[in-house]
Amino acid sequence: MSEYHRTFSPGGCFFFTVVTHQRQAHFANEDNVKRLREAFVRVKAKHPFIIDAIVVLPDHLHTLWQLPDGDSNYSLRWRLIKHYVSTGLQTDINHRDEKQVWQRRFWEHTITDERDWRNHMDYIHFNPVKHGYVNSPADWTSSSFSRAVDIGWYDNDWGACEPENILGMDVE
Fold first, then answer.
1. Which residues of the chain, if any, have pLDDT below 50?
2. What would the DSSP string read from start to end of 28-78?
3. pLDDT (tens digit, 9 = 90+) per residue, 86-128?
4. Do the beta carbons of residue 29 and residue 125 sit within 8 Å?
5. Under CATH, which architecture does the 13-159 domain have?
6. How far is it, in rounded angstroms, from Cα 64 to Cα 17?
7. How does DSSP classify residue 16?
8. Which residues contact 43 (CB under 8 A, 6 or more apart)?
9. CA 160 to CA 78: how far, in whole Å?
10. What is the CB neighbour count within 10 angstroms for residue 136?
11. Spatial separation of the C-alpha atoms in residues 170 and 40, rounded to whole Å
């Protein structure tokens, strides 16, 4: 068994990839996406954090979070989000009596600087294009891209082709 150690940085900024069990397309269903949004709202109310970027695809999601000063417990937040979503979905139960909605773990990366933040931000927003769902990030509704355009981080026509800073980047 491999030894996996998570990085905990109080008040840190983190990139996450969270995948559904066996890449099932749970989030192709808009009701399930709505439930995921509700989970984020509920968890943020009790355990605050800022979502700089997010994209929800049918079988996985990517997000970029900023935790409050002195707080590094993103694992608690993910456990609560996953639990809330799982309770609302009809799916198979495994031998541990758990709903088979999510892969057991998630992938996290601690953002190290502004360049790293920008690369992961671009990766998130370009992801629906990368997977062939749309031709432009602006066409994918389950994303923070339109909010990022409103803030001035992107032009609305950004992402028609893969940005050079994320060529070859793969954090699926």
1. 1-2, 4
2. GSHHHHHHHHHHHHHHHHHS--EEEEEEE-SSEEEEEEEPPTT---HHHHH
3. 987 777 666 566 667 788 788 999 999 999 999 999 999 999 9
4. no
5. 2-Layer Sandwich (3.30)
6. 9
7. E
8. 77, 80, 81, 84
9. 32
10. 16
11. 25
User: CB–CB of 81/70 below 8 Å?
Assistant: no
How many angstroms separate the CA atoms of 34 and 19, rounded? 17
CB atoms within 10 A of CB 171: 15
- Separation CA 141–CA 128 (nearest Å): 10
CB distance 16 to 65 below 8 Å: yes
Contact between 16 and 26 (Cβ < 8 Å): no
Spatial contact of 56 and 36, defined as CB atoms under 8 Å apart: yes
Count how many residues are written for the chain: 172
Whole-model pTM: value is 0.90
Decide: 104 and 94 in contact? Cβ < 8 Å.
no
CA-based angle 9:82:93, to the nearest 5?
140
User: Residue 63's beta-bridge partner residues?
Assistant: 16, 54
Q: Where are the domains of the chain?
A: 13-159
